[in-house]
Sequence to fold (433 residues):
Amino acid sequence: MRICLKGGRIVDPSQKLEGRRDLLIEDGRIVAVEPEISPGEARIIDLSGKTVVPGFIDLHVHLREPGFEEKETIASGTAAAAAGGITTLAAMPNTEPAADSAAVVELVREKAAAAGHCRVYPVGVLTRGRRGREPAAFSELYDAGVRAFSDDGSPVADSGLFLRILRQLARFPGVLVMAHSEDLSLVAGGLLHEGAVSKKLGLPGIPAAAETVAVARDIILAQAAGVPLHLSHLSTAASVELLAWAKERGFPVTAEVTPHHLLLTDEEICRSGARAKVNPPLRTAKDCRALLEALRTGLIDIIATDHAPHTPAEKAAGLEEAPCGIAGLETAVPMLLTELVGKGKLSLPDLVQAFSCRPAELLGLEGGTLRPGAPADLVVLDLEAEGVIDPAGFYTRARQSPFAGFSYRGRPVMTMVGGEIKMEQGVVHGAKS
Ligand code: DOR
Fold:
């Protein structure tokens, strides 16, 4: 099967390419990127006026299956990814059972393949059962193809155990440890960022130190063990300073930021209530500015959504009772295009670099490029398309968002994985919305 995408503007930082090109796809791979292709026998898709970028790669997604299918299934979560222009995702292991065995990893892979909406890389746990007490069965997980490890949702609180785990993982080539950096003793029942808003509302706050103390510990232990450490969902300006400190010294550290930590502040709780309750919490405008500046300079390596779906009923339970988490797969690209690219705060190539090229590098994945030979994983963007975020139309089961009602200009209009069209004009083929 040959497909020729004609007349689109290609933005591909992996080849420093920005300009009008035709793209020829054969048997699921890109075979040519040229100013003008006469494809002969092929399906021709006219993309004039549209922008084509490598498919977005989200290294931080909670698919919830097995165990929490009322919140999300692998089918619904991967459909949400395709709807959002995400062609590859890393699935976090805080399921029930947790991804601490080859059997669970295989189950996730099989269900993802059966759904067929995007590529899924299961992340393995750091501790058995994610209980934070003993190292997981790393050889078994590694032999099953797992390369990223995390207890996301919880830190490994015991520093001695964490160092032992990092040292064990350092023996496996190509491994990435994804740290959930949080000191639970400093969180101590907090519901939102500790600051002016928590004081105004009279609610217990989570100090910035709950993250930065743990970030400091984690980068120091990673350096001691000599294992690549990836700092998940950074939320504070002080964490950015520690990241700079570590990178200046050549520590093996990378980091991510979520769209909600870039675009929303703790004030959002006043408008959205529990829909904006997330861990780490939304911080201050100063933190947002520091995170964006770090992203712009490449100090923060990647954007990841931390898509953390919960049922509408759970989120309606009030600020105290509701679980933490924001479903980000379907809002990330329109919101980032609108608020950052559209407002001149981040270039489109820099967005693609942070949300496709660099994530591919971090996990050693094939995607993140439109070079001939690469899999045809790509997204077509309509940078002029306007609308309003409406969770009623989401594919995720978590049909609520602090971005509900936000206007956007720019969204994905086609998602292709391995040369197959998975989403067109917001409709995901073979999925229930
Ligand atoms: O808000 C969050 N929700 N943060 C996490 O670290 C975990 C996640 C979840 O699994 O719900």
In short: The chain has a mean pLDDT of 98. Residues 148 and 176 are 5 Å apart (CA to CA). The pocket of DOR is lined by residues 62, 94, 152-153, 180, 278-279, 308, 323-325 (CB under 6 Å).
